[in-house]
Amino acid sequence: MRPELPNQAQIIDQLNAIVEHELAGVVRYTHYSFMIFGYSRIPVVGWFRSAATETLTHATEAGEMITMLGGHPSLGIGSLLETHKHDMAEILNESMEFEIQGVELYRQLLALAEESGSITLEEYARRLIAEEAVHISDIDKMLRRPGDVAQAVQSEAP
């Protein structure tokens, strides 16, 4: 039997918040993939569907961490805001906001993991922060005009 972490209940709650957030991302990115039109449709649809698959992987990993700790993964899903703005820039800005929220959730988990002394949870949180930072960078690059090298959106993500 695995010894309980001092803040295990908080960690499980945070992991459940991550599961719900990532599951909302699966729905969000799949929906966005349906709403892309124009010359760049095929590669952009592929990117959004790949993002949906990756967010499902993130939700699955968080759920596995929950059960590793003896918890019960949530059946809930995070906030799904439908703005009805399907312009590519609007979709990318909404995606950026979603990814920044994800980084914050993983940073909160990292703080809890450091407090608990769990190297496994710390490494998991750090890896996901890094992956989300790459997503933010990708979205930022898509928001730039051709030839622009400066960031389009200022973010706190590493």
Q: Major sheet: size, sense and barrel closure?
A: none
Straight-line N-to-C gap: 37 Å
Q: Please report which band the strand proportion falls in: under 5%, 5-15%, 15-25%, 25-35%, 35-45% or over 45%.
A: under 5%
Count every helix, treating DSSP H or I runs of 4 or more residues as helices. 4
Q: Identify the CATH architecture.
A: Up-down Bundle
Topology:
Elements: H1 8-34, H2 41-68, H3 88-116, H4 119-143
Helix pairs in contact: 1-2, 1-3, 3-4
Overall description:
The chain has 158 residues and is mainly α. The chain has one domain (8-75, 83-143): Ferritin, CATH 1.20.1260.10. It is 69% helix and 0% strand. It contains four helices and no strands. The protein has helices spanning 8-34, 41-68, 88-116, 119-143. It is elongated, with a radius of gyration of 17 Å.
